[in-house]
Model the fold of this input.
Amino acid sequence: MKVELVNLTKRWGDVVGADGINLTIEHGEFVAFLGPSGCGKTTTLLMVAGIYKPTAGEILFDGKVVNAVPPKDRNIGMVFQSYALYPHMTVFQNISYPLKLKKVPKEEMQKRVQRVADMMGIGHLLDRKPAQLSGGQQQRVALGRALVKEPQLLLFDEPLSNLDARLRLSMRSEIKRLQIDLGITSIYVTHDQVEAMTMADRVAVMKDGKLQAFSPPDELYERPKTLFVAGFVGNPPMNFFDVEVVIENGEYHARGVGIDLVVPAERGEKAVGRGKVIMGVRPEHVSLADEGASGVINIVEPLGRDDLIDVRIGETDVQLLVEPGLGLRIGDHVKLHFDTENVQFFDPDTEKSLLW
Amino acid sequence: MSSKRFRGLAGYVLAAPAAVLAVAAFYLPWVSFIVNDKLFSTLTGRHIAAGTVIQKGSGEIVFRGSVMNHFILVVAAVTFLSLIVAWQRRRLVLWDGLALAILGAMGFFGILSGFGVASRKAGIAGVDMEMTYGMALALLASLLIFVAGVWNTVAVTREDPSVKGTLGAWGFMAPTAFLVMVFFFIPAFILFILSLTDLSSSNFSEPWHFIGLENYRRMFSDRFFPKILGNTIRYVSLTLIFFNVGMALVLALLTSHIRRRAGFFFRMIWLLPRITPSVVYIVMWRRMVQQPPYGIINQVLGWLGVEHQPYWLNEQPWLFVILVNGFVGASFGMLIFSSAIESIPKDLFVAARVDGASTWQIVRDITLPLIKWPLLFVTSYQTLSLLVSFEYILLLTNGGPGLFTTEVWALTSYKRALFTYFGTNQWGYGAAWGLVLVVIAIVASVVYLRVFRFDELVQEPKIDVL
Done:
């Protein structure tokens, strides 16, 4: 099912939940809504589900406006962070509840529930109550309940947030595989950028009710359209500097307090002559060197595979990953090399990218 | 058998007879104080084991030993039962120590105060009184029991530190236990004793008698007994079904499905009858049902062109008895139900809606099953409170119109015992009516506790255990 959101807005008095969201989700696509708490991603999802009525704008399923269609007629399945299993019903009753409401005959119901339960690997748990299941099993039941009525659209509201880290990893790939196998159009709300990046075909980044970007994960990472996207996507996050870009001897220089970097011409020319701009460099593009900007180590965080260090240059803290076991200590003076190939520039007022 | 348990048991066996003695000595003056000097006269015989003896001087007063025996039997039975309970629960030791300490203390001060009261009375009657060997022995025994109990408790606490926690828990429960004792068990016990007597305001200053179960025989053979029983069942069940549970549930569902503030507002309105003083509330109702041109009900009927405009309390007494009680009663369940409904995670409703449920289906399949425990609780609690409530009926119809039309059990008990309805206050007979309610309440409570598993209800909310 193709889903279009046209200028979708939700307000409660002065509080804005979603503000003029425009996006189109293609049939069979897996789209993640990514953003911090309160950014409006769940609000948007609940409007798509039909729980909230939009204040303005339209929701189209396959070209038809569904604003006034009640949730039960939208043919959607939904999975919640809290699993939202009915605690007084057994697993079987939970999964079969949508079918019962549709008055599906008993035999067919039995068959479909068994099939979905087997697919989810919970076929042997049908007689249990939710309280007798582990978190992972509960989420499988919730998935089964969402899938059993063969919906055309699957909505996920942070479904993995309550699971422990290891289980989250395996469920992540499981959901992704399931979505590819079944080919159901899916919207996946999350605040975890790793989930969004790894699972989604396209990621819609939201902030304060507004859509910040809507693009495939790699594009989001390499060509962030706004300062917020650049800072939100990527871990550890992008480093930002206040700089001014000038031309000297035919080279573009980005100059700030304590740094002076030569940047590629095709990037530098878009930022030159604008006065103060914000420069972004990802941690993986910064390294320790014998020559370069000098700074003092603020924090050393051993992560196992790498050490994350925080170096203060002028007024800016720069995060970078270094090999472990270098014996770096807080207060050490180091020099940093910046790989400026992928440097980003943003307008400090509009916070929009100057490059893309 | 562990040594701890054995020592506890041995202590009990040794102390039980002394405990019986002490408690009996305690209760006699206590009860005698309550029913004034009638029963007290029985204290003045010389056969009382742990009692007092008056030197024969002027008039000799006959001792009625059977009363004494009753007490001793009851206390002995209770002591014995507690022994069995304690034995089964394997909590013998701590139970013992505390029980003995309390019994001992009660006995000691009971005997002392009994002696004090008795000697004062004796002084008034112009006779001398002195402590007998039996009484001194009982005093000593109760003191010994007290010391043994304290010693046992301390020893057990030393041996098993976890007992300290238990003791702390008991300490917290003690104030409640005291209140329950003073305001339930002791009154219920006195009520029981009273119901076996013919005590009334007509023989208050003359000899009165223990008449066994005569009051109960009289009650069950009363001409209006079936009527009153039927009225009570009708009153409790109809008010419960239509208002205290039914209306409460409807209100809770409605007020939690509309806007939050509007919900609060309507709930507040429904609370108004409950916080209105009973008399004001009933006066209001009585004005509403007046004949034309006073009653507002008849005025409205007049506007609607209805010609039949009676005094509604005579026309439909039951309708108004139930309305008047129901308007007050509905708010209790409403509050409990709405808080239960609000504590259901919102996701469940969203999930049900997405699953395709209509509002009615959500109520039936999700809301009601999830508030099952509050529903049972309100049903049982309100059954009991309706059973013993009568003040609105008293004020509204006073059991009328006519003979016993709306008279319920509790009202009968009140009228017989405390209202000069039949010319006298028939304390003994009224107590018999009242005691039946007490027994029903105790039986019902035990049934509710068992069947509805109240202990689970008061633990964590069911719906949070996900």
Q: What stands out?
A: The interface with chain B takes residues 46, 49-51, 70-72, 76-78, 80-88, 97-98, 101-102, 130-131, 138, 145, 149, 155 of chain A (CB under 8 Å). Residues 165-182 of chain A form the longest helix (18 residues). The mean pLDDT of chain A is 89. The longest strand of chain A covers residues 15-25.
